[in-house]
Amino acid sequence: MANKFNSEGYYSPTExxxxxxxxxxxxxxxxxASFRPIVYICSPYADNIYDNILKARKYSRFAVDCHFIPFPxxxxxxxxxxxxxxxxxxxxxxxxxxxxxxxxxxxxxxxxDGMKTxxxxxxxxxxxxxxFTEKLEEVCR
Length: 141
What we know:
Blueprint: H1 13-34, E1 38-42, H2 49-65, E2 69-71, H3 73-76, H4 87-98, E3 103-107, H5 113-124, E4 128-132, E5 138-139
Parallel strand pairs: 1-2, 1-3, 3-4
Antiparallel strand pairs: 4-5
Helix pairs in contact: 4-5
């Protein structure tokens, strides 16, 4: 905390004003850095489940490294739901969670039916949609 007196005990309003300004700027930077928007990770799940899970983990790590909070539903819901018998419930839950996210991040060249549903929903909600290659390079669409 800034002090109106310097280290020798003399009144120093100029130094106090400068250090107070610096402290306020640093606090603003810390506050801005603490905000991390949630992004919905949209990538294939079915077909090659093992490889697709590994990719979704990589995409989620990428989001964290970019200072976002990833939400990859295909890493969460299959942990306790059966995709063959509870698919409709899972899709419903995906749509609810998508509406809570700041952006939709689409990964890879393959757009599955489930991904298309998520992209269409995001478009209807006018969400920001970003597209990335499997090598984590952003592409324009």
